[in-house]
Each structure stands twice: as C-alpha cells, then as structure tokens.
Write a sequence for this structure.
C-alpha cells in the first residue's frame, strides 16, 4: 500500500513538473527583462511613461509575449474541452457583448475625445462616483451571500472556514477597497488631511497613495488573476483544495467578460508584468474560443479577441493625446468594480439557491 501511495505521488509530481518548469521560465524572463531594464536603461519595474517603442522597448514586448506563452502552458487546463461547461448561451453572449461594447466605447473616447476623458475620471466626477457605487453594490451582494451561506454544509476552505466566513471576508476586502477609493470619506465630507498622512502622494486620507504604484500593481494583478486567469484554468469538479475553492469562483465565461481589465492601460504599458497579463489574456480568450461548441458563440468570441487586440493599438498609439495618461487606469478601476458587483450578486444567487 505504501508503494502504491508513493507511486501515485511520483505520478502527480511528473505531471506537474513540466508546468513548474514553464512557470519558472516565465518568471525568469520577466525578472531578467526587469533587471536588465533597470541596470542598463534605468527602467524601474513600475516605471510609468509613454509606451516605449525603441528597439529595447520592442524587445521587452517580445520577451513579455514569450513569458505569457510559457505561463499559458503552465496554467492551461488539463481538460481537453475547458470551454465545454459554458452551457448558458445567453449568459455567454451577454458577457462577450458587454466586453466588446465596453472596449469599443473606451477606444472611441480615446480616439475622438482624449482631452475630455480626463474630466470624467477625476475624483468626485461621474466615473469615480460610479466606481464607488458599484463597490457598495458588490459589498451588499457579498454580505447577502454570506447571510444565505450560513446554512450551507459544503466543504470548508482549508478545512477551517465555512462559507459565511469566506464570503464575509470577501465583503470586508471590498469594503476596504471602497474606503480607500473614498479616502475613508474625505472626498465626500471634505476634511483636512491629518498630519499622520502628510507624506501621502496626493495629500489624502488613504493608505494606497503612500505606495501608489505598488498598490496598483497588487490590485490590478489580483483582479486579473481572480477574474480572468482562475475562471479559465481552475479544474472544475476536482476534489480536495480545488473543490473547497470552486464555490467562490466565477463561471468560466466570466474570463471573457473580464478581459478588458488586462488591456486598459497606456502609461503603465512599459511595466513588464502588465504586458505579460495582456498577452496571457489574449491567449486565454483564444483558448476558450476554440473550445466553444456553439458556432454563434465562437464567432462572437472571435470578434472579442479581435476587438481586444485592435483597441489596444488605439490605446497605445492614441493615448498620448490624453491630458494625464492615467485616465485608462481610472477606467480600469471602474470596470474592476463592475466585475466585483456582478460576481458578488452571482455568489448571492448561488448560495441562495444552494440545496
């Protein structure tokens, strides 16, 4: 019996070893690109400026594409048909259509009204207030999911945390993001910034603007990983830890809806990990497309992949006309808040209907 268990462990290791190597290769390429850029060209890892299309900048883009390809191979689902579980035709068409319309709308704004876009994304302007409203709605949905999940007898996360604790933790995380977005009420009530926050980059009562670029990197990367990568690669129907996490994940089609958050950037394009996320998002979209069974869904998803690629060119080559360059980052934060809201209410519906 012991030999059987040992043989099974060896079999699992041999199955995962190539994936580990691919992941390590992707990390090595990103690290080498970042370190070389810092030491030779003075490019910091999180340096923001106009997109670099010099020979070195183009070489970095190629390396980022290769790193994304390696990461794609490391994370690619074992199932031969990971898109086959997208059975709700209307839901899939809605997700694809929403992503296409949003990308086209933002690209049109960047192309036709690049300077006016800045007036809508500043603090206390329409997009910023809409972002806060969506985060509130997301928090309400997650809180309701936690309430309905109190009677669920499913697996505990890590064997310790029942659904209400996990969902409550997710609601608390969204609450923290909301408060940071509102500077803990300063934007609405207008108090003077306390002395404790005197070194805040924007002189606001929040934590993230002490380390703005670092916080953004963690926030954007986490959003892309949770809303694009995990819905695509998570082994559905598996046991153990995979089964413990699956109830809290969006459906696979959610990856198509969330694709814009891997693309909405201009001044942050030179940051190598963001380039990797962009190319990985494109590969994930194509992988889901080629596994869909419905011809209509396949055509719609192909249109999304094309729009995803073309609008990126508009962002990169037309973004210089924007006033500050960070406008797309604000639009991305709005879209992340929208995804939080949709996911929160999907979880509320899921746990309400749980037997």
């Amino acid at each position: 019996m012991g030999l059987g268990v040992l043989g099974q462990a060896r079999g699992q290791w041999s199955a995962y070893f190539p994936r580990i190597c691919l992941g390590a290769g992707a990390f090595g390429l990103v690290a080498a690109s970042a370190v070389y850029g810092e030491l030779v060209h003075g490019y910091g890892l999180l340096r923001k400026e106009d997109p670099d299309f010099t020979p070195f900048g183009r070489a970095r883009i190629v390396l980022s594409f290769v790193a994304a390809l390696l990461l794609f191979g490391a994370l690619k689902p074992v199932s031969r048909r990971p898109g086959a579980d997208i059975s709700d035709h209307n839901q899939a068409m809605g997700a694809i259509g929403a992503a296409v319309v949003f990308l086209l709308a933002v690209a049109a704004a960047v192309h036709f009204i690049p300077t006016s876009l800045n007036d809508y994304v500043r603090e206390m302007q329409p997009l910023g207030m809409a972002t806060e409203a969506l985060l509130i709605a997301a928090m309400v949905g997650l809180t309701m999911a936690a309430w309905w999940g109190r009677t669920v007898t499913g697996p505990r996360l890590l064997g310790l945390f029942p659904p209400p604790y996990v969902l409550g933790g997710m609601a608390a995380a969204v609450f923290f993001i909301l408060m940071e977005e509102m500077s803990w009420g300063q934007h609405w009530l207008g108090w003077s910034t306390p002395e404790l926050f005197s070194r805040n980059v924007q002189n606001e009562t929040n934590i993230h603007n002490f380390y703005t670029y670092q916080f953004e990197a963690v926030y954007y990367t986490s959003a892309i990983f949770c809303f694009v990568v995990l819905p695509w690669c998570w082994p559905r129907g598996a046991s153990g830890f995979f089964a413990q996490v699956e109830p809290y994940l969006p459906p696979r089609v959610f990856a198509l809806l969330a694709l814009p958050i891997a693309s909405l950037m201009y001044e942050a394009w030179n940051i190598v990990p963001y380039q990797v996320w962009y190319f990985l998002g494109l590969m994930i979209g194509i992988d889901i497309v080629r596994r869909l069974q419905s011809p209509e869904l396949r055509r719609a998803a192909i249109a999304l992949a094309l729009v995803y690629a073309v609008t990126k060119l508009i962002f990169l080559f037309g973004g210089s006309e924007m006033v500050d360059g960070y406008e797309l980052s604000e639009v991305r934060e709005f879209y992340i808040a929208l995804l939080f809201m949709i996911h929160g209410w999907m979880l509320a519906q899921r746990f309400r209907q749980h037997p």
Q: What stands out?
A: Confidence is low (pLDDT under 50) at residues 1-9, 80-84.
